[in-house]
Amino acid sequence: MSEEVVEEVVVVEEEEEVVVVVVVEKEISDIMVGQAENLTAKEALLRWARNTTHKYPSVEVKNFTTSWRDGLAFIAIIHRNRPDLVDWRNMRQRSPRERLETAFHVMEREYGVTRLLDPEDVDTPEPDEKSLITYVSQLYEIFPEPPSIHPLYNIEAQRKLEEYREMATTLLHWIREHISFMRDRHFPTNTIELKRMAHESSRFRQEEVPPRLRDKNSCQRLYRDIQKLLDGTGFLEDELTPELHYNNVDSEWNRLMSLYQERDDALHDSLSGADRLQRLAEKVHREIKQTEITLEEVEVRIEDEARRVERLHPMDAKRNCDALDGELAQCEDTIKTLHSDVKVLREGKYHEAPTLHKRVVKLEERYVSVRTLFENRLLIVLNNRSFTQQESFTTTKRIVVSESRLVETNEHFRFLQECINWCKDKLKKLNDSEYGNDLAAVEREYESHQKEHKIIHQFHTNVDQCAAAENNFKGEEHTVYISLLSQLRKIYAELLSLSNKRVSDLHSLLDFLQAATQELIWLNEREEQELNRDWANKSLNISDVERYYEKLMGELEKREVQFSAVQDRGNSLVISHHPASKTVEAYLAAMQTQWQWLLELTLCLETHLQHASHYHTFFTDISTAEQWVMAQDEKLNTTFSVTDFGLDDGEQLLREMQEVREELSQFNATVDELINRSKSVVPLKQRRQTLRQPTVVTSICNYKKMDMSINKGERCTVHDNSNRVKWSVVTSQGGKGMVPGVCFTIPPPNQEAIDSAEKLKRQYERCIALWQKKQLRMRQNMIFATIKVVKSWDLAQFIAMGSEQRNAIRRALNEDAEKLLQEGDPNDPQLRRLKREIDEVNRLFDEFERRASEPKPGAVLVEQCNSLKEYLDMMEKMLIQRCLAGIPRDLDLLEQLVIEHKQFENDLSSHELEVESIQKNYQNLTRRTPAIQRTVETITQQWDRIWALSHVYIERMKCVEMVVTGIEEGTQVVSEIELKLAEHQDLPDELEDLEREHRQLLNIQQMIHDHQALIDRLLEECRNVRTLVVKSRPSQKIHPDVDKLEEDVRKLRIRWENMCSQIIERLRSCEAASELLMRYRNGHEVEKKELNDLENGLRFQKIEDLGPSEAELELERLRSMYMKIIEKKTSIEHVNTLGGRFIREAKIYDLRLCQYKASLEEVHPSLDASLSKRPRIQSGADSVTRQLDDINRQYQFIADETYDRIAKIYNKFQHEKNFNYTIGLGVGVSVIAWGSTERGNLASCGPERGFVQWRTWSCVCGVENVSVSEEVENVSVSEEVENVSVSVNWWRT
């Protein structure tokens, strides 16, 4: 819609609403040419909006009111046609009014669409329909037809969708092809064919299913990725047919696996039944052969009997005839059994059942013939003879009866007869044995006969045993025995010879069959590999197949010698009339047939390899060419779609576009070559696709099987290729059958190749058209960029260019614009905008020319600003260098730097009047240009920035000075206090000394408290230094100088905290020791005095001078004294406990003092020299230990002396008549009981009381003396030290 129409609509809208509708309908009707006649203009515009916004999430255009309220419809229209102008996903996160504002602004800026609406007019409950129709009609005029490629459909999603479609199509075709095959339940009755099918089924499960399962899993992953990429766009449902969705593919896969399992079970059931029929057929074959041999032997014997029947006794002849009749009866039973067995084979549709039936019928006819011969030649003759030779018969009967009697009564005769019977049975069994028709049967026969042969060979011991028993008989018995022994030897020799021959025949047959089977297996493996090779598989590795072909031809050449050798061995067996010649001949025929068939397959392999190589190379080249064209499209749509760039960038883009054009021109030859090659590509993919109609194919090799014969090059017709291995083919002579598909090639053309080439041609032509469009747009944008640069000029830049350069730029702009206007469509909004922009630039040139002739304002101000700018740049650079310099640690250097910086600030202050002058002159200018304004603002900002950085720098120097000073003062204070703490000695045992120690520690504590503020201030200033350094070095992330300064402060802080901890711990130990020592002294003095009194109370009067009465008084006194000693146990124990606790406290104190001195050696290497020499005082722990030892020894001495004196007096006078004093359960028992009780108490005593109770008990009971010092040494101070926790912050609280 033109601007005149828009203006008309706006004006009329203000006057009368009805006229607006008329104008709008008229204009929409003008632009909706070609729409259906039954649609109104409004409906056609609404349809256009729906088509354009199709597949945009949350966009549903139903009307011209509420559907546009959220702004997404406008954004979708712009994004569909120009995705480079708006970001769809970003816009979805914005508010409706922000979207509307962006859409109106972009269309006005890029296409000059008049802004008829504001966001507030649209984002209302009821937007104005007429205004929206008017605005949307302008959008339709600019974008009448949306692009074919949806912008939300990114390249990655497209690539994955194409990959998924191709993979899913291939997989689905493979599944359906095998589903039709798995439904087939018509199995052959031949065991070999069934085994081959079972092997094929197993190979399908192990070789074909796993790669297809991987393809299925890949399809699943791709489908999920595509769902994520196209979530909410609706592309997935439109682009993929329902059958290609993964759920359907998965369902078909499960269906195939179920059918396969059912078919595999049925196949194994058929194979089991076929094996049973095969064994039955072998049995029938053996019995037929054995019966034939029996009938031949019976026939020979009938002839023999017929010739000598006249000479034999009637009874002998009768006996012989009965034997023959019995054998014929047995043959008759066998034939009946054979008929029933053959019936079973025919019902089971065994392939050789008709042949076996014919043989049984023929055997039956032979039996009838022999039976007739027997009756005519023997039975009739015997019936006509008279039995006159009674005497001879009686004699023979007597001999026979005698022989039978001997066998029944004599064990040697019985054993000999058993051996003869055993040999006859074995001989008959060997004659009836078969050799087998395949390798497995021959192996079984060979293993079985080896065991039999071993048994036969070992049987000679029984023969020797029978021979040894010959000496046990004489006369007539000896004659009979010799006759039977001769018969045994003859039969055994015949048996052994026959067994040896059978071993040799079986061994030679087995050797040949094993070699022949190996050759057949090798040939079958190669055949299977070729028959099952999928030439239509797009992922087929041609290089691997080529290497395999070369390897196969080499193997065939080497294998031919080995193959011929096996054939020669088989021919030699046939020539030598081997018993199993028929089996050998069958294997030789199979080997020759299979060898010839493999040679034909190699020809097929070579031909298919050539076609596949051509096929894959062509499609690879097509894919490469498509990717190249897509890359050019992507490059044109991204790199060359920018609208905002500089002139240099624009020139570079134009040069690059010309290079792209040259590449496109050269690529045309590649496209033509691919089109020509597409006509000769063989349609490989058609080999695996189900044929919808019969297809003509060409035979690659000769094929002959049963009633099918196809010559090389013969053209046949394929009616069904659903079976991947064998196709249903009709030959040129009309023969129909299943033939391996590998024998045929489908001739060109390949419609897929032709379509791909044509598609590439169309893409190439679209790319050329896109290039032309982008090149035209780039030239327009280049002119717009030039116009933008011209509009950004100020008068100074315009004048600095010179008249000739200005005129050349103006002339070039007008010429290029005129050329574009002539080449383009006059209705193109961009060209209309170009015309407006060119007019504005011409007016701008005229304005600059006019202003250039006027006097230049502000020239002096500009010169003044430039001069001051140079000075400020120099000063700012100098200040930045100072800020980047390391932090000094020397106070003199710090002072010097502060002085230098004060001089720097004085020098900078001297230019303050110049800055004020520049600002005043700028305010007095009558015409302030933007360039002059920017220059003055730059000067002012730089001036303020330098002063701000200067203030930060001087503050930093002050903080550094305070930190350095604080470190020196703090180090001095800490070192002084540390030395004072180190001068202290071990804890004394005098209260006056303890009080003096406590006062000294309190003085040190007060000193620490007085200097705590110094340490706190140091830590605070150190943090300030870090803050100021970071602020003065904004571009630097690491500050090693500050890190070193903070490390020194941290070390000093740690020493201070250790010192505070030390003083707190010592004060606590000192106070606790003072209290314990006072209590200990009081108790020790009392006990010491009482022990001295007890010791003085002992009378050392000689016992010999005492009489009985005096002894009684003395014992009573000593007993009273001893009870007092026992009662003092508790008080003595209490004194020991107090002393032990003091000793422990003193040792903890001494240990802590020693550890602290050791920790100071790192800080004070010459610590011993720094300490003042003080007189060494005795350790309080050692002193109290000795005192406890003394009082315990005294207590023990008194108790021992008292007890010994009581015992001596009592022992001396206990037998005197005048001595009436009785100890009873007194002293000794009480002491013993007390001692045992104290032992129990000692077990439960803690570390503070154990040694005291032990000492007390030992004193009373006389136990071995133990030193108190040894017990005190066992007191652990580690636990007490660990339990001491000191808070350093105590000093601050």
UniProtKB/TrEMBL annotation:
Domain spans labelled SH3: 692-749
GO cellular component, one term: hemidesmosome
Keyword terms, alphabetized: Coiled coil, Cytoplasm, Phosphoprotein, Repeat, SH3 domain
Recorded GO MF terms: structural molecule activity
UniProt cross-references to Pfam families, sorted A to Z: CH, SH3_10, Spectrin, Spectrin_3, Spectrin_4
Subcellular location(s) per record: Cytoplasm
Gene Ontology BP term (one): cytoplasmic microtubule organization
Keyword Phosphoprotein tagged: yes
Coiled coil: 274-308, 650-677, 894-928, 977-1021
SUPFAM superfamilies reported in the protein's UniProt record: Calponin-homology domain, CH-domain (SSF47576), Spectrin repeat (SSF46966)
Annotated ranges, domain Calponin-homology (CH): 39-144
Keyword check for Coiled coil: yes
Name of this protein: Plectin
Lineage: Eukaryota, Metazoa, Ecdysozoa, Arthropoda, Crustacea
